[in-house]
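Explain my protein.
***
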Amino acid sequence: MTPPPAELNASPTAPINLVATRPPWSQTFSSLKIRNYRIFASANLLAVIALWMQRVAQDWVVLELSGSVTAVGITVFMQFLPSLLLMPLGGILADRYSKRLILMISQGAAGVLATLMAVLALTGNLQVWHIYVIAFVLGLVVVADQPARQVFVNELVGPRQLRNAISLNSSIFQMGGMIGPAVSGVLIMAVGGGWAFAANALACTITVISLCLIRSSELVKMPPVQRAKGQLMEGVRYVLRKPTIFWPAMMAAVFAVFGLSLAVLLAAYANNVFDAGAGGYGLLNTLVALGALCGAIASTRFATLRLRGVMAAAGSYGVVLMIASLAPNMVTFGAVMVVAGFASLLFLTSANQLVQMSTNVRIRGRVMSLYIMVLMGGQALGGPLMGWLAEHWGVQWATVVAGGMPALAAVVIGLVLAKRGQLTLQINLRSAKKPVFIVPKTS
């Protein structure tokens, strides 16, 4: 098959081969019918619950040991700094080598780090600088893990079920976000955060075992990309010339710096505003995840992905955060956080789907690594920034900034797209020959 004109300037890659349908409600979880994905998703749910437990415990331990919201932001910075600097290398690894093997190695390393943190915490020797160092090394692991994880989903389910699987991955992440923080909050109050770290170490082990159980013969494998000069810049050029990748990435950059530092702000609200302690912090995280789970499930119902829809979801999230800054009590604030979680996941999931479905499978690892670099690297900058703002301006004003900037960016990008008549990826359910195509935006 001859590549479409937009692909000709890149090195040889396989043509996009996507078949997307809008299933009835009974098919909302259709990708789980595939054995390999079912195994992967089941282990991933346990892993995500444990990961959320570790994140909440880590942030709370730092806050207890230091008494500083800025210190919590620095922890976020240390964890996401490698993504900001090195994530494209992870994309090259994902395109060149076995995604399954990369995930096994990265999850094994994450398990070792969680074990180390658990031992230090349970023996009473954990200090803030330990958490900084371990968070940084874990960030290095994420550089290899995330691009491979994103691309591996396509190998598990194939292009026909890709959108559904992406949405279910988001749902799984948010289910973990509902359960993990609540469990972690109880553990912290009952026995301390060390057992949350131990639970994550066990979950990483289970993930490695599950990857061993996946049948290689049933994977939809793409041939590895051969080593060559200029592969990273090839990915950059690809992103720059495709509107359905470039604009979601630009929005994700602003969203990550300001909007995705919400965990830092929630710690400040729980500790300084509502005096709710670790249990309240876990509850607020759970409420955000509850809304996000609903948003992830709702994203499975969209048959058409449009740039304007992605921008509208990001802008809505920003507006909701600004409203949250006015909440007079924790009940009202918690209710608004459910809505914030819904809007956040609508943006994150639809942007992820749009980027993946717009990307040629042979270059997808590099493209996704650049997208993840923006998304996670932005948090490295945003964590300390929002922590500093919360300490010096007050958490309410920091929340206004956290919401106002994504809302403003969504408006500006929306105006640019409207002026340029930018492109949109559409899905025609009535056409078997050309179910996915890119057309000028008409409205």
In short: The radius of gyration is 21 Å. The beta strands are 423-427, 436-440. Residues 1-21, 432-438 have pLDDT under 50 and may be disordered. The chain has 14 helices and two strands.
